[in-house]
Amino acid sequence: MERAEKRVVVASLQEALAGAGSIVVAHNTGLSVAAFTDLRQQVKKAGGKVKVAKNRLAKLALKETDVADIAGLFTGPTVIAYAEDPVVAPKIAAAFAEKNQKFVILGGAMGQTALDADGVKALATMPSLDELRAKLAGLVKQPATNIASILVQPGAGIARVLKAHAEKSEAA
Length: 172
Description:
There is one protein chain. By secondary structure, the protein is an alpha+beta fold. It has six helices and five strands; from the N terminus they run H-E-H-E-H-E-H-E-E-H-H. Helix 1 crosses helix 3 and helix 4 (about 90-100) packs across helix 5. The longest helix has about 45 residues, at about 130-170. The protein is elongated and about 100 Å long. Belongs to the universal ribosomal protein uL10 family.
């Protein structure tokens, strides 16, 4: 790889890692192409990306970002998974690591906070931003629904009484 190509790779990695909500670094020694393709598809479907980069270039890219210093994780054959949603990459990587023993999570970062392997797995158990938004919308909607039903009840009660009175008058 020529120097110009290396600069382009480092610049693209810097851009990707700077905009990531979380980053997961893992070893992928002996992982089959089919399994790795499956991982890529899962992460891509969830809105993230998986990259394999030379360790030296990844370390250079990290130096120019505000991401925590996780350069020590880049030894051996490493994979970088990242996404804007801070929970997506850890969640998919942790689930993938449970199914594939050859995929070993080394650690990662969430903003300026460095995470070890246990930290990444703990982050994976949290709900995603979409799940949190749905729960919040449900909590906001529920009181409004209750208020609407309470406001409708007196009117409905009056309507039932009037209907019963009208039926009684017609029967007599």
